[in-house]
Amino acid sequence: MADIAVVGPGAIGSVAALAAQQTGRHSVTLCARRDPGALRVVDDVSGGVTDLEAPILTSPAEVTGPADWVLLAVKAHQTDGAAGYLDALCKPSTTVVALQNGVEHVERVAPYVNDAQVLPAIVWISAEPTGPGEVTVRNNISSLLQVPAGPAGEEFARLLEGASAVEVELVSDFTTAAWRKLTTNAIAGVMAVTGRRAAIYQRPDVRELALALAQETLAVARAEGAALPESEAEALVGIFERMDPDIGSSILFDRLAGRELEWDARNGVVRRLGRRHGIPTPVSDVLVPLLSAASDG
Fold it and tell me: Would residue 91 show up in a list of annotated catalytic residues for this protein?
């Protein structure tokens, strides 16, 4: 049995907590900024509802000791706000799984975790808040967590073995996998700017824009060591074209709710690293300031 703390029981955190609960082997605690009341996860295919049974803390002062595992599920730009929980929960033997977007997991999280090991994770979970204390998962889309192959990744896979809420996949080329996901995150930024769900990618002009954005993101990815050819751009834009029209993205949901946006980890990084490598990023040069402005508002 392991002591697992889930920091940030939002859409992704709730699904991660459900997976830990489903194993029936672990002690799970949820760490939130405010009391969300009862939490439940809804399967949109079966209509099944599962209540999360873990206790909910609302302050780092309530933490009684370090955890064996911390599943960090706050948005990338909220990591600093989770510093109190991370300090209280982490010791050198703790493993922190960064369930966050972007390609800078370790650099972002390591300063807060008291020398604990940081395991970056790529999150492929389609979930959204659909009511007070309620998260709905699109279970016609596989829920997958990709982590680097190696001892820590293998231990994490064993930790969640037996859970049906998510599958853990070990990835040998994590850089390539992370940049593939980052490219989809970058494309999804168009949803936040337009305030539209996946139906927007059916427009020829938006498809052309998304393709150009994917191409420049992949150019930066290759400069960062990812094995992603330019032809990958068509495939990744195709994912959005084939989505159900009402599928959204977390950055869109935050925009519609008037919350601060995770724009830097998803889109700003393309522009920043593009400049470092001398790679033009004309679409990001327009999109990033618009996302930043929308976030400020």
Answer: no
